Amino acid sequence: MKLPQLITDAPVKIDKLVPGGQGLATTEEGIKGFFWNALPGETVTEYEITKKKSHYFEAIALKIESPSPHRITEKDSCYLSTSPWQIMDYAYELEQKAELLIENFRQENINIPKFIIQTDDKDFFYRNKMEYSLYFDHETEKLHLGFHQRGTHRKIKVETSSIERPEIFKEAQKIIDELNKTHADGRKYQSLLLRCNQNGEVEGGLYENHKPHPIFNNLTDTILGKTYSYSPNGFFQINLPIYEMALEEIKQYIKTEDVLDLYAGVGTIGLSVASDKNLTLVEVNKAAFKELQENAKNHKTILEKSENITELIAPGQTVIVDPPRAGLDKKLIEKLLETTPETIIYLSCNPATQARDIKLLSEKYQIAKLQAFNFFPRTPHLENLIVLNRK
To answer: Hey, which residues does 59 pair with through a beta bridge?
Structure first.
């Protein structure tokens, strides 16, 4: 079947939001539908199917009957590409994220303590990094900023974008204007990546097709009093004010003199909360490790996969883990259970895999603290901190 497919004669009612961020509905035939631009309680009367399998489909809602009282007008026409939860009021967003987090752990039969999602209430203009496509308008014969339309390979023209810091969007428009002045061929470029620091200084640039990514000037930012250097296209948090909230929370649970920071990136967790300790930092990405070495000159740094240095784990330690979305490697979990360090601090961008890992670690650990942080407002994503104490 050729996609996308427009459906106008099979209305469906949205039951709830799912962790991926879509609204879930079931057709009369019992097929599950996952809808963008739809909220619980709404009836979708017209939608475009972007993906279809035998037992489910994904779609974008185009017409809504009886809109939810929590629905608001989105800021940007490109919101589905960047921040699909622009359609709901912010209090409802926090409520839904809390429910989804609880559900992630309920699926693993884990009852979690009560929590309130921490936020600075800045739900727009918070991202310090953005990557744009280039869109060519055949009518005007000019280049524009673009994004890929969610669920398709089509590009859409971007007129406004309210999720990144204004300095980034302004610089992006300036670069596009320069390309148009020189009548540049947009097909030459893969994308435009820009990043800015807390002072509003912007670095980055264009990626050309079939060429190595350019080396950009480093940026610097200060987190909890320590200054870090990092590449615009490297590993660094995209919402620093909320990140500092998380680090302040983590710092309270550093009780041991020996601290092991795994998946360390450029070192912002370990160095911010345990720079006065016997700190070892481990990172596998070579570019991030180079920056880590610069940031952590007075501490031991190791270039290796975290699951390959399990001999460093010791009973009297605090172990910090901030893994990718896939969660912890099984070999690492086994070593943690075998060695039982005193405290495990687990920061995660994917509560589903975090809950899976906590279920395994609960054999010898109990949750001392759970605190969620809204690092990514107007999106379905949530950062969650769990502190585990040895039983």
So the answer is: 35, 49
Residue 133 predicted with pLDDT over 90 = yes
Which value, in Å, is the radius of gyration of the alpha carbons in the chain? 23
- DSSP E strand stretches across the chain: 5-7, 12-17, 23-26, 32-36, 43-52, 56-65, 129-137, 142-148, 155-157, 189-196, 202-208, 219-223, 226-230, 258-262, 278-283, 300-303, 317-321, 343-348, 365-373, 383-390
pLDDT, position 7: 81
Residues 160 and 272 in one domain: no
Q: By residue range, what is the domain housing residue 386?
A: 91-123+239-390
Is the distance from CB of 239 to CB of 127 less than 8 angstroms? yes
pLDDT at 209 over 60: yes
- At residue 1, the pLDDT reads 47
Give the model's pLDDT for residue 373.
98
Average pLDDT taken over every residue of the chain:
95
Domain tally, the chain: 3
pTM passes above 0.85: yes
Cis preceding-peptide flag for 4 (omega within 30 of 0): yes
- String of DSSP letters for 215-237: PPPPEEEEETTEEEEE-TTSS--
